[in-house]
């Protein structure tokens, strides 16, 4: 079972436009698996997406 372990957000200026983003990290009950992702959008219509899956030894 995964649970949300961290939520984050940001606001910034990028190439003269405002930008906002959000991200979420899920961690398995064992604490070893991580799944996270983020989305960002600029005032000019640009978007960015990031995902990651990891295992901690």
Spell out the blueprint of helices and strands.
Blueprint: E1 2-14, E2 17-28, E3 33-42, E4 47-55
Antiparallel strand pairs: 1-2, 2-3, 3-4
Task: Write a structural description.
There is one protein chain. The chain is an all-beta fold. It has a single domain (2-55), classed as Pantoate--beta-alanine Ligase, Chain: A,domain 2 (2-Layer Sandwich), CATH 3.30.1300.30. 0% of the residues lie in helices and 77% in strands. It contains no helices and 4 strands. It has strands spanning 2-14, 17-28, 33-42, 47-55. Strands 1-2-3-4 form a 4-stranded antiparallel β-sheet, with no helix packed on it. It is elongated and about 45 Å long. The chain starts with a strand and ends with a strand.
CATH topology: Pantoate--beta-alanine Ligase, Chain: A,domain 2
Low-confidence stretches: none
Total DSSP helices: 0
Q: In CATH's first tier, which class applies?
A: Alpha Beta
The oligomerization state is single chain
CATH superfamily: GSPII I/J protein-like
The domain tally reads 1
First-to-last CA distance: 18 Å
- Order of H and E elements: EEEE
Radius of gyration: 14 Å
* DSSP strand tally: 4
């Amino acid at each position: 079972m995964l649970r949300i372990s961290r939520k984050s957000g940001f606001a910034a200026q990028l190439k003269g436009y405002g930008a906002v983003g959000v991200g979420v990290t899920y961690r398995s009950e064992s604490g070893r698996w991580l799944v996270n992702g983020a989305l960002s959008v600029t005032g000019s219509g640009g978007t960015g997406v990031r995902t990651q899956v990891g295992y901690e030894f």
